[in-house]
Recover the amino acids of this structure.
C-alpha cells in the first residue's frame, strides 16, 4: 500500500476528517476550478464512464464520493431508474443538491452524507457503482473497496475514474510541471485554501495506479476486467465485476 497523504499534514485528525474539511472549504469554487484547471477535459472522461454504465444497462447506480454530483448528473444519460450519490462533505453535497434541483432531476437523483468505508445500504443493492476522483481520498482503500463490493449485486460493475501518472516523453514532463507547479498556485489563489491543490498532486503521486490498483481490486474480491488510460494517461478508467 502507498503511504498516507493528508491535506493538512501539520494538523490533528485522520485523513477522512481532513478530506471532509478540505472539500467543505473549497466547495463553493470547486466546479469552476475543476473544469478550468482540467481545461474541461474531465467532462469527456465522465462521458466515457457513462457510456460504459449504459452498455451494462444498470438500473440502480451508486455514485461514491459524488462531490457536487457532476457524475451523478451525467449518469442520467445512461437511463437508470435511480441514482444515489454519497459524500462525506456536506459543503459539496449542498452545491450538488442545488444543481440537481435546477435541472429538475430530484425524481432520479438523491444525495446523502455518508462514509464510503461504511455504506448505509443493504448487501446487493446496486447494479453499478461509480467513483470519480474519489478512491485516492479513501482513508482505508481496502475497506472502501470491500464496502463497494458488498453493496453491488452479483455480476454488478464497479467503474472508477481516477488520476494517473503519464509516462510518455515529452507529455510526462510538461504535465508534471503543470500539475506540481502551476495547478497548486492557481488553485490556492482561487479556492483560498493553501493546502487543497497541493494535496491533489501529492495524493495522485502516492496512489497505486494501473496494474497496482487492479491488484487492490482483486484483493477486495473483485474480478478486475480492464483499465484504460485517457488523455495520454492523465487519468485511468478501471472496470471490475462482482
Amino acid at each position: 500500500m502507498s503511504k498516507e497523504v493528508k491535506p493538512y499534514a501539520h494538523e490533528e485528525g485522520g485523513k477522512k476528517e481532513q478530506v471532509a474539511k478540505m472539500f467543505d472549504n473549497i466547495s463553493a469554487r470547486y466546479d469552476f476550478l475543476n473544469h478550468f484547471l482540467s481545461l474541461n477535459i474531465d467532462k469527456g472522461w465522465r462521458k466515457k464512464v457513462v457510456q460504459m454504465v449504459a452498455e451494462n444497462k444498470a438500473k440502480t447506480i451508486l455514485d461514491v464520493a459524488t462531490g457536487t454530483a457532476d457524475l451523478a448528473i451525467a449518469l442520467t444519460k445512461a437511463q437508470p431508474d435511480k441514482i444515489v450519490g454519497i459524500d462525506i462533505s456536506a459543503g459539496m453535497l449542498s452545491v450538488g443538491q442545488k444543481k440537481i434541483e435546477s435541472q429538475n432531476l430530484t425524481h432520479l437523483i438523491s444525495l446523502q452524507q455518508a462514509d464510503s468505508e461504511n455504506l448505509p445500504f443493504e448487501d446487493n443493492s446496486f447494479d453499478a457503482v461509480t467513483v470519480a476522483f474519489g478512491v485516492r481520498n479513501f482513508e482505508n482503500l481496502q475497506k472502501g473497496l470491500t464496502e463497494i463490493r458488498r453493496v453491488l449485486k452479483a455480476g454488478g460493475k464497479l467503474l472508477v475514474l481516477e488520476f494517473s501518472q503519464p509516462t510518455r516523453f515529452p507529455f510526462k514532463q510538461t504535465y508534471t510541471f503543470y500539475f506540481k507547479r502551476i495547478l497548486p498556485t492557481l488553485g490556492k489563489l482561487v479556492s483560498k485554501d493553501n493546502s487543497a491543490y497541493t494535496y491533489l498532486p501529492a495524493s495522485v503521486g502516492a496512489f497505486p495506479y494501473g496494474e497496482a490498483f487492479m491488484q487492490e481490486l482483486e484483493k477486495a474480491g473483485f474480478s478486475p476486467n480492464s483499465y484504460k488510460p485517457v488523455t495520454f494517461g492523465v487519468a485511468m478508467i478501471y472496470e471490475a465485476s462482482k
